[in-house]
Structure formats: structure tokens, C-alpha cells
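Task card 7
Instruction: Convert sequence to C-alpha cells.
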Amino acid sequence: MPGLRNSIVHIISILRSSFSEVVVTGSIIMNKVFSVRVRPDDAIREAEVFSSTFRDTAVLMDDVGFLNSLGALGMVRVRGSLVVFVYDIHDVRPFCEIMGLPCLEPWDGESLVQSIREGRDYSEVFELPYVVRLGPWLSIDGAKGLEVVRRSPTFNKNWGEVMRWGLNRLIGGFSRELPNELLIRAQDSINVVGSGDGVLISGSTWSFIKDKIDKLAGYALVRSLYVNPLPKNLPNVKYVVDIDDFLSKKLGVGRLMMDDVAKWYNDLMSEVVHEFFFRGAGDPLMLIEWFIARHRRVGEVPIVILDPAYAYDISTEGLSPSYDMLPTYFEPARFGQVIDIVTSPLAALIALSRSGYEYGRIIAITSPCTLIANQDLLSEMQDIIKPNNSLLIIMSVDNGHESECGDFTELFTKYGIKYSAINYDPTNPTSALMDLIRVNESRGVVVINFSKKAVKRAYIVNDEYCDNCGDCLRIGCTAIRLVKKPVIEQDKCIGCGICELVCTRGAIGKMR
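Output:
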């Protein structure tokens, strides 16, 4: 979907013509699109330094980067403006509320420019970082930036408090409260069309609803640039049109047109996910990786258990022990980084379900052979696997030895366990992802049927990067032989990908 990348490029162009400094952070999506390497928390710290010198500063990141930057945003100080533009596939509004950050949600190009002006000018006034929520639903054709406020960098060590930019801001922290004046700004940023019962329309649904205005004849259509804080005394609002539940829960009002909105949004997200998150055909574990990461992004901290049969898919690169008392969020870059425990999935699932863990679901990924070998534990799982608790994912892969294990689905009938089956099409992974998300609403057991016979994932050595370190030879693969440099014999390669994982030089990859 080339239009999505062009949209982000256009946004960057608008920001560069409106701010003295623009930082694009290196979360997974932005890294894929722009090949940047700045960590989200480092981007916020860099922006804080710009702001400390009285500069108007913008940061562009995606929702994953935003969640990874919350710690830095909680401690950041502002002198010049600091506005964080979030390309939001999921909903960051609740986090703005928790962090006490002003949040704006433009609905078109004109309101985007208004958001830029509002955030840039009033971030400096209230000395708060502003958040502007953007997304693939936002049409910004014809939108142009503002004139940059030209200032020479300056610095005052004692602005408002001694050592304002010192170490104490990092180790002491502080709690934010939105100034009362922000409610006035929010009240001045309401757009109302028509009369009658009010329908508050979020910016993320406007591009859909604007073509269906005739369905809302007799209502007053209300749009608010601010979603945190929401203006007080919204004009007679009784209904909400919103992708998520945030506005309706916040106001305690009914919702309209959600079936149409949900279909439109799911179709849009399917395109976005397919472009940004999938490595390529024939990778069913990527499906689970994105599914798990999705729940981490909305604040859930699931415990993920992996069958030792799939342990070769684990990469420990970049991981380090965590000594935090409470679960914390992190941004996974690959499947191995979302795995918490490698052990017997059924036994661990039962133990953790009984432990009373409350921070998220328990997800166990197992093979049919392991399931059959541990079938004595299934009798204990009828009360364990239930809605709002646990999810058991079974990767039913037809690649030789697993097909010899027998029909494991008979065990579900024997023990009265309900399950859902998903057929994984390696050429269209997003369809399986949407099925997995829908099935997940009721939790329980999911069987993902995948045949490796459907796609051949052969690997090849790139001589330009290979320096004969020998790591790939140590795995003892019969498909790898040494000539002048290692060579992978394609007729023997089964596409397991272990050689790619062990190659620290990045010299081995999938054959295109």
C-alpha cells in the first residue's frame, strides 16, 4: 500500500515546515518505512534537549514507539514546545489520560494544521508535551505546514526551578495535572454541525462518517480537537461514533453505526498490518508474534509459553534479565522476544492459571505431538481455558513427524473441550490474523492448520557479507557445505531457517 508511506512522508514534510526540529523515532514500523535507528525513549530525550534550548520540537512515532516512550515522557520537561505526533494503529488516548498529557485528534487536513498550531503554541505556554493522534484514516491532501518560529537556541539553568534539567528529573519523577486553562482551550476547539441530539464523532472515524452524513439527519454532529481533556458540557451529546470504546465509556453515552465503522476499520487495518508486520509468505509464527504484540500494545502483559519443540525459533539476541517487581511493557522485534517461558505448555498453562496472575492472559503455543504426549493433563483444562483467562494455540504443521502423531482433535471431543480451527494461507497471512483476533474474543483453544508443503523457504548465503566465521557450519546441517565459503544446497534445504538465526553477520537470508 504505497499510499500509506506517502502519507507519512507528507506528514514529515508538514512537520518540517512547522517546527524548528523534527525527530523521527526508530520503532518497528518507522524503522521499516524510513530505516531510522533512534529508540523511542531516546527520541523523547533528544526532543527534550531541543526544547530546553527554547526550540519548537516535533517527534513523529507510531503507537508502539509511543508506549515505549511513556517512561521518558513522564519525566520530560518542556521550555520550547514539544509535540509528539503518534501514527496510531491502536488507541493511545487512554495512555494520554493516565499520563496527564493533552491529546488532540484531527479529522482532516485543516484540523491537522490546527492541531499543529495548538500543540506548538500551547505546549510552550503550559510547559507540557502535547500528543497528536494521527492514523491511516486521516486524509491530509492539500494540507500545508505553518511558518517555522525562528529562534536562536538559548538556555536558562534556573527556569522555574533550580536544576530544572538536572538528574533529579530522572530519578525523582513528578505527577502531572492538566491545567484548568486547557479546558478552556478544549472548549474553544469544538466544531458542531446541525441541531438535535449530539453525536460526538472521533477524528479516527470522520473520514468514514463524512460520506454517510445523510444517515445522521436530525442530529448535531460534534467534533472536538481535544480528546484529553474532553471539553465540559459538550452540546447535548447522547451518542458517540468511535472506533474504540474510549469516548463512549468516558461520557457514558450510547454508540451509533458501529457495525459499519468496525468493518471499515478492520479492512483498513488488514492492509496496514499486511504491509508493515509480516516478513513474508510461509511464516505462521509471525502470525502469533503480531497477535501477542498487539495485546502488549494496549497495555496487557501476557505470559507466553512455548513448546520446546519450537525452541529453535527463539532468539536471545538483545534480551537481558528483568528484575522489575511488576510486569513491564517492551517492544518485541521478533518472535523470540515475546516468549517468556520454554517448557511443557499444558503443565505451565495449568500452573499459571491457578496462580491468579492478573496483568494479562496466558498464551501457550504447543505442537500436536506434545499435546498427545501430555493428554493426561487435558482433564484439568476444562476449567482453566475459559473466557477472559487463557488461550492455547496449537500449531498443526504438516511437515513430516508431526503428521505421524495422530488425530489430536479426538482428545478435545473426549474431554469436552471446544476449539476453533484456522487455516493459515502463507500467501495471505492477514486473513488468518483477523480470524485469530476474532476467535480470541472468546479465548479457549485455537488450532492453526499450516502445511509447509505449500511454500518452500530455501535459504542462500550472500558472499558479500560472509567472512567465513563458521557459525553456520557448527549447526551440522546436511544442506550446508564449505567450498571457498559456505554454500547451501537447495535440493537439501528444508527451509527451517536455523542457519539464518545463527549467522551473526547477516549473510544468510531467504532466497527470493
